[in-house]
Design a protein that fits this description.
By secondary structure, this protein is mostly helical. The chain contains four helices and no strands. The chain has helices spanning 6-43, 61-81, 86-103, 105-123. The radius of gyration is 19 Å and the shape is elongated.
Length: 124
């Protein structure tokens, strides 16, 4: 285990920014689904098929928005509660990589990069 370098600081900052972007992205997706659904309700007020519609849409936009929101909040919580130990750097690097892969969005990409930097810093 080598001394701490600037890679871990950069990785944590990228992870925090990625988490914030994921929260905003998730909120915008959720709001977008409900605005689109409200528009459909107003335009098709007497449509019988309205009751059987899937609020997530064909691609599950609502579900992806909720996942991005929850994972972004987890990242922000982890950033607040993180420990400065060397083992914590490896653990949170792996967690950020997994969340970045699952979460998608531009924030997920920043999380992935931040996690990779943390793992590189641990083994450097």
């Amino acid at each position: 285990m080598a001394k701490k370098s600037g890679l871990s600081d950069l990785g944590v900052i990228l992870a925090l920014i990625g988490g914030i972007i994921m929260v905003v992205y998730g909120i915008l997706r959720i709001v977008g689904v409900f605005v689109a659904e409200a528009n459909d309700i107003l335009s098709d007020a007497f449509d019988v098929d309205l009751l059987s519609g899937n609020i997530g849409g064909e691609n599950g936009v609502l579900i992806r928005g909720i996942i991005a929101l929850v994972l972004g909040l987890v990242v922000i919580w982890v950033w607040k509660e993180r420990k400065a130990s060397r083992d914590g750097i490896l653990l949170w690097g792996i967690v950020f990589i997994v969340i970045g892969l699952i979460g998608g969005s531009p924030g997920g990409l920043l999380l992935l990069i931040g996690g990779i930097l943390l793992v590189i810093d641990y083994f450097a």
